[in-house]
Amino acid sequence: NGDLIKTTSFKISSQKSSPFPENISALTLSPDKNRVFSLSLSGQGSVGTLSNADGTGRKGIFSSSFREWLPSWTSPSLITLTSKPSALANGSIYLLSTKTLTSQIAVASKPGLTGILSPDGKTLVYSEGSRGGMKTSYYSVASGKTVPAPFTTVPEKCVWSTRDVGVIFCAVPTSIPSSEYPDSWYRGDVSFSDAIWKFDTKDSLDLGHLIISYVPGELIDGVSLALDSTENYLLFLNKKDGALWAIDLSVAAPVDSD
Predict the structure, then answer these.
(1) Which residues of the chain have pLDDT under 70?
(2) Starting from the edge strand earliest in sequence, which strands make up the sheet with 146-148, in order?
(3) In this structure, which of 65, 138, 213, 218 has its CB flanked by the most CB atoms within 10 Å?
(4) Cα separation of 238 and 244, whole Å?
């Protein structure tokens, strides 16, 4: 049946596979990789289930009449649920607590809304479409306050540090052509030329530190940013050609933006 979605957990060390229920629309692993949050479609919308990594111990913890959610689990006790972003529709970001099993709206009614939560669960960096462009903001989970970020990019071009609390690395476009975001970038109608930056979201006066501004003979549209376990290397894919890049952060020392 072409409409049937099958999901399986496979443990490499034991070569053991464990099937999950059918027709899971999206899932995300906990930061420690021991648990899974999965979304399934129901007649009334969508249902979110928490389980062990092998699919056992399943427990329903979320339900919504909305079906188009993107889950992400970057903070141990908070799961981010983002409505699939489009410049043509207002979106929302919910924070679902795995401790209290309650959810709260972090950001709502923003066109082209997309965001990522910090590993400590304190700061959400999000972007929204704005008058043919976009803008990026910091949202404080504790205070509920939002402040403009000192840069503009889509959060899919960023990665949080897990060693340096509140620090985020981002591929930031040097210019943003007028278009509908993030749709036109997702489709590939617009391609960016990025510089790589480091920002401290805890410091309201921090304007960022430039890591790499230009690579001779290369144009970079960075996606899928990741840090190695020591955070000495920043890796990313160049959306322009799919090439894998690595930056040695111990060599590419940050340069003050001013």
Answers:
(1) 1-3, 252-258
(2) 114-117, 123-130, 133-140, 146-148
(3) 138
(4) 6
In the chain the first and final C-alpha atoms are separated, in Å, by 59
pLDDT at residue 21 in the model:
79
Please state, in angstroms and rounded to a whole number, the distance separating the CA atoms of residues 138 and 126: 7
d(CA 85, CA 91): 6
- Give, for 64, the enclosing helix (H) or strand (E): strand 59-64
Predicted confidence at residue 112, as pLDDT, reads 96
Q: What are phi and psi of 92, to 5 degrees?
A: -140, 155
Average pLDDT, the chain: 91
Per the structure block, which two tokens stand in for 61? 């913890």
Burial of 254 (0-12, 13-18, 19+ CB in 10 A): middle
Q: What DSSP assignment string belongs to 146-201?
A: EEE-SS---GGGEEE-SSSTTEEEEEEES---SS-TTHHHHHTSS---EEEEEEET
Residue owning tokens 């999206």 = 26
Residue 171 and residue 223 in contact, taking contact as beta carbons nearer than 8 Å: yes
Sequence-distant (6+) residues with CB within 8 A of 13 are none
For residue 128, give the nearest of 144, 107, 143 by alpha carbon.
107
Ramachandran angles phi, psi of 156, nearest 5°: -65, -10
**Alpha-carbon distance 70 to 61, whole Å?**
16
Helix (H, G, I), strand (E, B) or coil at 34: coil
Rounded Cα distance, 15 and 6, in Å: 18
